[in-house]
Every structure is written in structure tokens, then in C-alpha cells.
Design a protein that fits this description.
Oligomer: single chain
CATH superfamily: MFS general substrate transporter like domains
Radius of gyration: 17 Å
Distance between the termini: 33 Å
Strand content: under 5%
Helix content: over 70%
Number of helices: 6
Number of strands: 0
Length: 163
Amino acid sequence: MLFEEKIGIKLLTVVTIVLGVFMAMLDSSVVNVAIPKMMAVFATTQNRIVWVVTVYLLTVGMLTPASGYVGDRFGYSKVYTFALTLFTLGSALCGMAWNVQSMITFRVIQGIGGAMLMPISMAMLFSLSKPEKRGSIMGIWGIAMILCACFWANFKWIFCGIP
């Protein structure tokens, strides 16, 4: 394989990993914008609809610490693919939610996938890079989150979580 092809494959891998994590991070807060509309659509109270946001954050917070173990046990690539698939499935189901209870349940599914994406992506990027380049790769990973927000600033954020 040519050197340029290896660089292209690594770059594509890094971009894919970063985009998956960006979606999970975005979903932790983008739903806040939709709360008033969801209250109207689901005919529910603010006390109840806030669980749509809270349950995602709770799920991510509870499961993130176990993600490293799961990645070590089953392989980072497999776990990342599973997590991204689960997150995407949860996103699709959220788009089809028929009431606030189903939305909360589907946000748990999203949270399970989202909880694994961040630590697994960091481990994958860490293992893809040479020891002397790891600091740079982690810096790029962090900067990518900020740049994604800047580039998408004029986009309708509420639709970003829809697969």
C-alpha cells in the first residue's frame, strides 16, 4: 500500500471516529432546544419532559466508566461499531416516539451507545497513533469538537441527531 493511501485511510478513520463522538456529544444538549416543542407535541409538563434530557445524561454518566473494560474485552473497533449503531438506532427511535415515555426510553438506548463512543474513540485514536504523535492526535480530537460546533452554527441544530 502506498504511503498516501495509508494516510488517507488513517484520516478517514479519524474523521469517522470524531463524527460519531460529535453526534453523541451534541445529543447531550441539543434536545434542550426542542423541549418547548416536545411539551406541546406530547402534551406533557416541563417536569416530565426534562427527563428526556436527564435520562440521557444519567445513562452516559453511569455507563462511561465501564466502556474501557468493554473495549478491552471485546475489541475497540467492534465496540465502537456497536455503540454507533445503538446510538443511531436510538436516534431513529426518538424520531418516531409517540409519547414522552417512549421518548425517555429511546433516549436511554441513545445514552447506552453515546456512553461508549467517547472513551472508545479516544482509545482507538490512541492506538492508531505512534507514541510521539498521541498528544497531537488527542489535541486534534478536542479541537474537532469545537470546529464542528463552529461549522454547524448556522445549521438547524435540532436535526443533527436524526440519522
